[in-house]
Amino acid sequence: MGELTHVNGQGRAKMVDVSDKAITDRIAVARGHISMLPETFDRIKDGGIKKGDVLAVAQVAGVMAAKRTFEMIPMCHPLLLTGVDIAFYPDEQTHEIEAVATVKTTGQTGVEMEALHAVSQALLTIYDMCKAIDRGMSIHNICLLEKDGGKSGHYIRQ
Question: Which pTM was predicted?
């Protein structure tokens, strides 16, 4: 384990100075799941939610979240993202939808928080659009799957 980088000499939070870091291509991939009743799953799949196309709205919400992560996570740097993609993988057996966010930039700091924020917001949007028919939905297993670029190198979740 490395040192905590967001703590100053007085033990207080700080935004990390990345001015001496190399500019490199960076990518992060995160995922999460939302579980729901079979009826809710079927209505999402069949377009039967009155508020609209749930996954299309969740996709836009995830992209927007990635772009605005620095406004929600206090020590995140504002980044010029070069790519954000959200993919959804519905599972007919478990009545879950997996969301996977891939975020890219060329810069001095990574995009892990942007990918995690994108997945979280996409799943929360699914919840919001379907809560009138299924308040028991559960969001879980949000995690970083992969990151690359920068000094710490390539990480792949085992």
Answer: 0.94
Assigned domain for 96 exists: yes
HSE-CB at 46 with a 13 A cutoff on CA atoms is 8
CATH assignment at residue 86 = 3.30.70.640
Q: What is the pLDDT of residues 102-133, one digit of tens each?
A: 999 999 999 999 999 999 999 999 999 999 99
Tell me: is residue 113 an annotated ligand-binding position.
yes
- 75 belongs to an annotated ligand binding site: yes
Within a domain: 3: no
114 is in an annotated binding site: yes
- State the catalytic residues: 128
How many domains, in total, are found in the chain?
A: 1
- Tens digits of per-residue pLDDT, 65-84? 999 999 999 999 999 999 99
- CA distance linking residue 106 with residue 23, whole number of Å: 6
